[in-house]
Amino acid sequence: MHIKGKPFKPEHGENLGYLPEERGLYKKESVLDVMVYFGRLKGFSRQAAKDWSMTYLDRMALADKAKIRLDKLSSGEQQKIQLGVTVMNSPELLILDEPTKGFDPVNRRLLMEIIEEQKKSGATVLMVTHQMEEVERLCDRVIFLKNGQSEAYGTVEEVQNLYGGQTIRMTCSGTVPPSQNYVISRQQPNHVELAINEGADQGAILQELLAGGLQVREFTTGKLSLDEVFIRIYGEQDNAETAAVA
To answer: What is this structure's pTM?
Structure first.
């Protein structure tokens, strides 16, 4: 690994923040003691580490648990602590492995705000995630890996265009007929999204759907989402890998 074009050395560690998928914290210690300990490792004075930690805990609605042992917290709360000790020194390079895995939408949004603030402050963020809405919100470039090989790489727009770039969203009833012109990317009761194959005509697709007996009440077109690109690349596979650079 190279940092700023130079081989990584131990002294670069102070400018690196790493959040592994498997969390590594001292679970028998109190929340505040753990955060202060990591702050000291990152060059904070004890008081500065305590002040920063309490401000962060208050933002995470965890200030009342500062003196509680870490293993008494829920897994989501522990994950918030792990992210806190990762970003507390405002690292220049932030490496995150599934940072919001298992979070509800409210807490996911909160953690994404923290990560977005790091990016705005000048940090480079390298993030592994399966949450495509996070990539679309935060990242400048994305790479999809399949069987250890790069399947698609570029800006979000470049990757969308690589796979046709357009989608159809319909409110309808009936069965969508199979076609060479599109792929069903999402299907719910009375709602279907189709990823349009390259070169296919949207008007012709509508006529094809109607001729196949589909009752269409609403028909709109738009840009292919990264969720739909994801399905194009991996289908129903469970071993998908996505890395994104913010």
So the answer is: 0.72
